[in-house]
Amino acid sequence: MGFQCRQFYIKDDQCAMKVSTDSLILGSYVPVTGVSHVLDLGTGSGLLALMLAQRAPAAQVTALELEPAAVLQAQQNVAASPWPHRIQVCQADVQTWREPTQFELVVCNPPYFNQQLPSASATRELARQGTTDLLEWAHCAAAHLSAGGRFYWILPLSVSQRIATQMAANGWYLVDSLAIKTTARKPVKLMVHGWQREPAQQLNTEQLTVHEGARYSEAFRRLTGEFYLAGQHD
């Protein structure tokens, strides 16, 4: 399994954090038309930042990460990519980081396994469980969104349903919703939600099934094929 940005690859055994289906879907799905500044909250190995630098060739990307080893890995991946001049990796805590730049797009694949058993690796435990309440990611996004900007994240269905009520109470308006199923017969597992600070004229709802039998679905391959080698070659 690998991630491809034209000539650039991230292999599983080279990354501090594995290339995840979550990030691949999120980075492929979010709209980038007219985007000049992108903020990636909790970038990990830098996957989302790299994907969005490729999809938005005129955009400057700021990638925040708290864990030092992940920051180093992201910096190395960015340096090896075609876009080191357009991606800035910063070691920072989203609860305190502030800067004047306004971003048209903010993305986040937050840690959401906070009810799971501890991981054997402290780094993996931080990535999976995190130390930041989900609303803190949204507060950071709100502080840095430009007028008309959007904030996208991917969460398990149960978490997404719970946090949606809190988001609405904090002045967010849902504009995009992508329901993700692993197979057609299984229930929805994940949700991508796109939020903005202005009332939405309509809610765009879609559904994605990842697998059809032993293969990736045609819809999944269309969405992620530019990046995911297995999405092009089953």
Strand content: 25-35%
Runs with pLDDT <50, length 5+? 1-17, 113-131, 230-234
Report helical residue fraction. Answer: 25-40%
Give helix and strand order, one letter per element, not per position: EEHEHEHEEHHEHEEEEEHH
Going across the biggest sheet, name each strand in turn: 5-4-3-6-7-9-8-10
Helix and strand content put the structural class at alpha/beta
* Number of beta-strand segments: 12
Report the radius of gyration as a whole number of Å.
17 Å
Q: Helical stretch count?
A: 8
Describe what you observe in this structure.
With 234 residues, this protein is an alpha/beta fold. Helix content is 31%, strand content 29%. It contains eight helices and twelve strands. The chain has helices at residues 21-29, 47-55, 68-79, 122-129, 134-144, 157-169, 218-224, 229-232, and strands at residues 2-5, 8-11, 37-41, 60-65, 87-91, 103-108, 145-156, 173-181, 190-196, 204-209, 211-212, 215-216. The strands form three sheets. An eight-stranded mixed sheet has the order 5-4-3-6-7-9-8-10. Strands 1-2 form a two-stranded antiparallel ribbon. Helix 1 runs parallel beside helix 2 (47-55). The longest helix has 13 residues, at 157-169. It is globular.
